[in-house]
Amino acid sequence: MRIENRRSGMRYFIAALIPALALTFSACGSNSLTQTQPSSSTSISVEADPALTAMLPDKIKESGIIQIGVDPTYKPNEYLNGTEVVGWDVDLFDAVAAKLGVETKWNPGAFDNLLDGVQSSKYDVGVSSFTINSDRLKKNTMISYANVGEEWASPAGNPGEVDPKNPCGKTIAYQNGTVQQDEVKAFNEDLCKSNPIKELGYTGQDEVNNALMIGKADAMLADFPITQNAIQMSDGKLEALGEQYGSAPYGYVVRQDATQFADAIAKALAALKADGTYDAILKKYAIEAVAIDAFEVNPQV
Question: Domain 149-247 is classified in which CATH homologous superfamily?
Answer without folding.
Answer: Periplasmic binding protein-like II (3.40.190.10)
